[in-house]
Design a protein that fits this description.
Structural class: alpha+beta
Helix content: 25-40%
Number of strands: 5
CATH architecture: Alpha-Beta Complex
Distance between the termini: 52 Å
Number of helices: 3
Oligomer: single chain
CATH class: Alpha Beta
CATH superfamily: Ribosomal protein L22/L17
């Protein structure tokens, strides 16, 4: 027995090698998962953590990708943050001199932030834009 699943269209944006620890960025990402885009922007604007600024940039990029896609006719206010995840990136390793000729390791951690937005199920239908191809004459 095969269950047919309705495929939901999503638009994504990602930022790679962001100089924030993935562990710290995940704390902020959990606040916006499942929220509407205007609500997520408000939450990020009042979040004190540095990762909020980076996540807000990725959210803005995902909304812009959805609005400018010619195959989709989505409004930014009718979108919902369907998926947010933060993966670890490569760690930049640096050294700091310590007493008695020793070295101390410094790990500068990076992360990859991915945000997927989808249209709200109860969003009003908008008139579709037609992309007309110019006739080769």
């Amino acid at each position: 027995m095969a269950v047919a699943q309705e495929q939901r269209q999503e638009v994504r944006a990602e930022a790679k090698w962001v100089r924030v620890s993935a562990r710290k960025a995940r704390l902020v990402a959990e606040h916006i998962r499942g929220r509407s885009v205007p609500e997520a922007r408000t939450v990020l604007a009042f979040t004190q953590r540095a990762a909020a600024r980076e996540i807000e940039k990725v959210l803005r990029s995902a909304v812009a990708n959805a609005e400018t896609n010619p195959n989709l006719n989505w409004n930014g206010d009718d979108l919902v943050v369907s998926t947010v995840y933060v993966d670890e990136g490569p760690t930049i390793k640096r050294w700091q001199m310590r007493a008695r000729g020793r070295l101390g390791r410094i790990h500068k951690r990076t992360c990859h932030i991915t945000i997927k937005v989808a249209q709200r199920p109860d969003a009003p239908a908008r008139a579709t834009r037609r992309v007309e191809k110019e006739a080769d004459a």
